[in-house]
Amino acid sequence: MHIYCNVNSCPYEGLCGNGLVESDKVFLGKNTRTQILGVVAAEDIGPGEVLSQYLGEIEHLSALRSGRPRNQGFRLVLTQRPERPSRPIRAAINAGKMGSLMRFVNHSCSPVAKFVEVSNGRRTTVVAVTTHVVRRGQEVTVDYGDDLWFICRCGLASCRHRDIQDEDDPNAGTTNYSMADIDRMLCLVEKVLPLGKDEWERLAASFNASKPRGAPEREFESLRRKFKQLYSTRKPTGVATMPPHIQRAKEAKQAIDDKANV
Question: In what residue span(s) does the SET domain sit (predicted)?
Answer without folding.
Answer: 16-145
